[in-house]
Design goal:
28% of the residues lie in helices and 24% in strands. The protein has 9 helices and 19 strands. The radius of gyration is 25 Å and the shape is elongated. Strand 4 (35-40) and strand 5 form a beta hairpin. Helix 6 (220-233) packs across helix 7 and helix 6 crosses helix 8. The strands form 5 sheets. Strands 9, 12, 15, 16, 17, 18 and 19 form a 7-stranded mixed β-sheet that branches. Strands 1-8-6-3 form a 4-stranded antiparallel β-sheet, with no helix packed on it. With 390 residues, it is α+β, with helices and mostly antiparallel strands. 31% of the residues are buried.
């Protein structure tokens, strides 16, 4: 029986998507639920899987094409299953010894040699983790252009360039950033926080916390809880503008900026005000893992009433984060550096982090913004306030 394989139903907010590279070609056998191709939207990558065992008989849309919901992608013959019964490849090729590199198909090895790609650095998408030709092609497509210094072998006078299409998510990020700059009156206020109390608390309870909850106690849970407490006191920072109305949100959905291979994504901690430290750490760790695998869902990347971004993990000392519309504010974290400070008339060295709050001045006045950031600072410098609701 011939089955049609179509583009998954896209959410109303997503008008179109882009096909990435096919993992199977016409005439190749496929298994039920095997991923055939990825569909990239401006938010997530969706997998198109085989609805049944069979043989792929035709591909109607090639990789790189722009597609819409329900559009025909390929056809599958469920009765032509003979190739699936072929004997497996030698054990030596599909089951390497511990520590050995992942196996690669002959075609993948040949292409990798031509393109200078090390197959042992790739994650195989074939059966049993086998590196296939499509994995090498994807690595070549994502490879950054060689530095000019490495192009010394080029003939004198040549100035090599490389033109690479922007991914759909990068296009969407660009659109949203320009929209934020054009439509909001963005200002940023700064403060600094002494992280000694948080660091001491983590050092005392880190092992017990990890043993009890199965997750490491990081800094982000403290910042999420501190932000929630500040949002409770200054609900305008948690609000948004809708036309001529101000929408006050009676809940705290905190967006956490996460780096992924496709760019910056902002999954949302739903009802963060009701989450424990352990819940926050587990959810953020899960976001990070699935962002790396492009497994975040559209729902997880939608909504949010406030965001937090941590440039400190990349070494940033100070920055002015940009709003994530329609949110009205975003908190920027930075690296922790030992700096001299004055305490009780004495100069001492303390671990200091600079904080930045960018906000929409159309809605939030400087007074609320400054007091919000001071509240975050106070909660971090005296973490007991988070437990006592002060």
């Amino acid at each position: 029986m011939q089955l049609e394989i179509k583009v998954p139903v896209l959410p109303e907010s997503v008008a179109e998507a882009t096909l990435l590279q096919w993992r199977k070609q016409p005439g190749e056998a496929v298994r039920r639920d095997e991923n055939l191709i990825d569909v990239e939207t401006d938010k997530v990558v969706l997998e198109v899987v085989a609805p049944a065992d069979g043989v792929l008989t035709a591909i109607h849309q090639q990789g790189g094409a722009t597609v819409h919901s329900g559009e025909l992608l390929a056809t599958l013959d469920t009765e032509a299953a003979a190739p699936l019964t072929a004997p497996p490849e030698p054990v030596a090729e599909i089951r390497p010894a511990a520590g050995d590199a992942l196996p690669a198909s002959p075609a993948a090895r040949k292409l990798a040699a031509e393109q200078g790609v090390q197959t042992e650095t790739l994650s195989g998408s074939g059966r049993d983790g086998r590196v296939i030709k499509e994995d090498v092609l994807a690595a070549v497509a994502q490879r950054a252009p060689e530095p000019v210094a490495e192009a010394a072998a080029q003939p004198a006078g040549e100035r090599p360039e490389q033109r690479v299409p922007m991914t759909r998510i990068r296009q969407r990020i660009a659109e949203r950033l320009v929209e934020a700059q054009r439509t909001a009156a963005i200002l940023t206020t700064f403060n600094e926080v002494n992280m000694q109390a948080v660091m001491d608390l983590r050092a005392r309870h880190r092992e017990a916390f990890e043993k009890a909850h199965g997750v490491k106690l990081g800094f982000m849970s403290f910042f999420v809880r501190a932000a929630v407490e500040a949002l409770r006191k200054f609900p305008l920072v948690n609000a948004s503008i809708d036309g001529a109305d101000v929408v006050y949100h009676g809940y705290f959905d905190i967006g956490i900026a996460v780096s992924s291979p496709r760019g910056l994504v902002v999954p949302t901690l739903r009802d963060a005000g009701q989450m424990s430290f352990a819940d926050i750490e587990k959810t953020i760790a899960d976001f990070g893992r699935r962002a790396g695998d492009n497994k975040l869902t559209l729902e997880e990347l939608s909504g949010g009433t406030f965001s937090i971004t941590n440039g400190g993990i990349f070494g940033s000392m100070l920055s002015t984060p940009i709003l994530n519309p329609p949110q009205s504010a975003i908190l920027g974290m930075h690296n922790i550096v030992e700096r001299p400070v004055v305490e009780h008339g004495q100069v001492v060295v303390r671990p200091i982090m600079y904080l930045a709050l960018s906000y929409d001045h159309r809605l939030i006045d400087g007074r609320e913004a400054v007091q919000f950031l001071v509240t975050v600072k106070q909660s971090l410098e005296d973490p007991a306030r988070l437990l006592l609701g002060l």
